[in-house]
Amino acid sequence: MQEKIEELLMRYEELSHSLSQPEIIAQTELWQKLAKEYASLEEAAAAGQEYIKLLDACAHAEEMLSDPEYASLAQEELNQLSARMEDCQNRLNSLLAPKDPDDDKNVVLEIRAGTGGEEAALFGMDLLRMYSRYCERKGWHISLMDISETDIGGIKEAQCLITGPGCYRYLKYESGAHRVQRVPVTESGGRIHTSAATVAVLPEIEDIDINIAPNDLKIETHRSSGSGGQHVNKTESAVRMVHLPTGIVVTCQDEKSQIKNREKAMRVMKARVADYYRSQAEKEYSDSRAKQVGSGDRSERIRTYNFPQGRVTDHRIGVTLYKLEAFLDGDMDELLEKLILAGASGELMEGAGGED
Q1: Distances (CA, A) of 52 to 47, 67, 81, 84, 98
Q2: What is the pLDDT of residues 270-280, one digit of tens each?
Q3: Cα separation of 302 and 264, whole Å?
Q4: Residue 56: its H or E element
Q5: Angle between the 28-64 and 71-95 helix axes, to the nearest 10 degrees?
């Protein structure tokens, strides 16, 4: 571990030095490439520096154990340092795990209400808020592209574009069915109901990854729905895009400019078409694998949010956190890092379901 950290910190320092050199700055493409690598190492480098400091502190405390006058204090400090070391090492294992080629890509996030009627739609809105708060904590930008709301503040479905370093790495394991157990606001008898919403996380596909022929697209424009005053009434800025070979439909109406809505819709369309063809190619493998670990289909439950007990449980790794309120407020890193580590080590049971 220490050797890996030292190599990481050395590369991080090299990049920091290179990015300040005039000859590198003059080469825009090279500078951007190095800057992207530097940003991708920043979080791991900070954790590595913390780990080295903790190692030094542990070594100093161990030396003090031999002094009878300070032995008890040294042991107490070692106990505290050990807990911090374990936490730091877990974060480093997650950050240093082999990377998926898509890890640094932007994300197309889709949320749909599942079983449970209006309560499922309200839970869908809770999930949208949770991911929005998480993006704020990570310094990412989340753009709401399309949303279908219910009369009492829930959502039937919503589609977002998330941009920022490492966002697919952290969010890719969120795809699946999320179950909630709580007393709905519409329940007068105080009974606990179980509802669900599904989440899909797709990596945004760059131009070099997939090419959609213009003849394969049907593009329509219409007036945006919802509030918006005169602009909504007079201009057709909303865009509806259909990929004819697959039947995939993308709608975008969050921008006032039709051109911007068209650009955003195309970005999402590429991600969804690529995911469709990737799913087709993997179907044979998935069918055989399903006999051993389950189908991994998004309809299978991956997580339960239990309000009466204040806990969130991820069934794929058997982890329960008793901080539901904080988790829904975007404090998700502890669980997501465990998922990344389990995924890298092959211990993640996709769509494990499980009773709860």
Answers
A1: 9, 24, 12, 12, 22
A2: 988 988 887 77
A3: 29
A4: helix 28-64
A5: 160
